[in-house]
Amino acid sequence: MSFHRLARAALPVGLALSLSACGGMTGEGNSGFTGGGAERQVEAAAAQRQAEFAERNRGATVAGANSGSRSSLWDLFGTKDDPDTTVEVNKYIWNAALEVLNFLPVQSVDPFTGVISTGYGVPPGGGRAYRATVYVQDPALDARSLKVALQGQGGGPVSAETQRAVEDAILTRARQLRLRDSRL
């Protein structure tokens, strides 16, 4: 058996094993914040966006699922996806949020709905632990595209100044990333 055939056979197995290893990292029991209007607003907006995404893709099926034909593992790597399905998240805001909040452990991310949920973490040089839910709701590099909900370890939302400072830091970093890409 040639190396090419062996590599071709091992690739899907390796991908399947690596994807199955990620299955338990959803942060069960920490599905969202309790209390606070901003957190509920972010969660409601995320749920609405996820429902809209599911509605848009309701007619999509797995290749060959309804046609009665046999499907194989190789159908996963085909290009039979709907070309009209797009991710409506600004990549600069998304990456900036992950960079700015890198001290927080990520519990779940969903680029299709634009939601990043984190666990509690202490910022560098700080003494209080926070957790955050970030909602990127538009593909534009704009302040209206970003909603951040922060919660302190003791419960309840943080001050408006702290939340605004985190949002400003994310937007500033997003602009820096955009400028860096424009120079390429």
Explain what this protein looks like in three dimensions.
With 184 residues, this protein is an alpha+beta fold. Helix content is 39%, strand content 12%. It is built from 4 helices and 4 strands. The chain has helices at 3-21, 37-56, 91-100, 160-182; strands at residues 106-110, 115-118, 130-136, 146-152. It has a 4-stranded antiparallel sheet with strand order 1-2-3-4, sandwiched between helices. Strand 1 and strand 2 form a beta hairpin. Helix 3 (91-100) packs across helix 4. The radius of gyration is 20 Å and the shape is globular. The N and C termini lie far apart (43 Å). Residues 24-35 and 59-68 have low confidence and may be disordered.
Major sheet, described briefly?
4 strands, antiparallel
- Beta-strand residue fraction: 5-15%
- The residue fraction in helices comes out at 25-40%
**Cα distance spanning the termini:** 43 Å
Helix vs. strand class: alpha+beta
Q: Compute the number of helices.
A: 4
- The SSE string, one letter per element, is HHHEEEEH
Which stretches are poorly predicted, pLDDT < 50 over at least 5 residues? 24-35, 59-68
Number of strands: 4
Shape: globular
| Rg from Cα | 20 Å
Average pLDDT reading = 75
Going across the biggest sheet, name each strand in turn: 1-2-3-4
